[in-house]
Amino acid sequence: MLEQRDGEVVTPMAVAAPREFAKTTVCAFGYVLHQICFRKRHFILIGSDTEDLASDLTGYIYLELLYNERLQQDFGELVKGNKPVDDFVTLNDIRVKARGRGSASGVSSTSSGGRTWPSWMTWRMTPTCGIPTSSNPSWTG
């Protein structure tokens, strides 16, 4: 299924590679930085096996936005210091949130492909590499 956004067709993608081939670096770091800098998304959800792993990923993104001088030269200031790294809003109004499997307390879950995902993971989300969607909840990362 293709998503139509502002007259542009967005093609879902899947990334498969052996262990230690930088899938997370490319998908949950580089791709997300691109989406933030070029204002391609309004909300980015980083999902991982645990809340701590997801927070680490959003923390790396936050630190890159805060301290990378080249990004600041090209895109201006994108975040302010002293913000929680697991849920923050950039200065260009993009929310970045970390969630771990089962971290939504009191929320029902669905099971697919041997994994159990909270129901918020099965909402209609824009497919990005490493993020499960309702059409592919059995991602492995």
Keywords for this structure?
141 residues; alpha+beta; two-stranded antiparallel ribbon; 7 strands; globular; disordered C terminus
Description:
Helix 1 crosses helix 2 (51-67). The chain is built from three helices and seven strands. The model is unreliable at 105-141 (pLDDT under 50). A three-stranded mixed sheet has the order 3-5-4. Strands 1-2 form a two-stranded antiparallel ribbon. It has a two-stranded antiparallel sheet with strand order 6-7. The protein has a domain at 21-105. The protein is globular and about 35 Å long. By secondary structure, the chain is of the alpha+beta class. The chain has helices at residues 23-37, 51-67, 69-75, and strands spanning 3-5, 8-10, 43-48, 87-89, 95-100, 109-112, 115-118. The protein is 28% helix and 21% strand.
SSE topology:
Blueprint: E1 3-5, E2 8-10, H1 23-37, E3 43-48, H2 51-67, H3 69-75, E4 87-89, E5 95-100, E6 109-112, E7 115-118
Give a summary of the structure in a few sentences.
The chain has 141 residues and is of the alpha+beta class. It has helices at residues 23-37, 51-67, 69-75, and strands spanning 3-5, 8-10, 43-48, 87-89, 95-100, 109-112, 115-118.
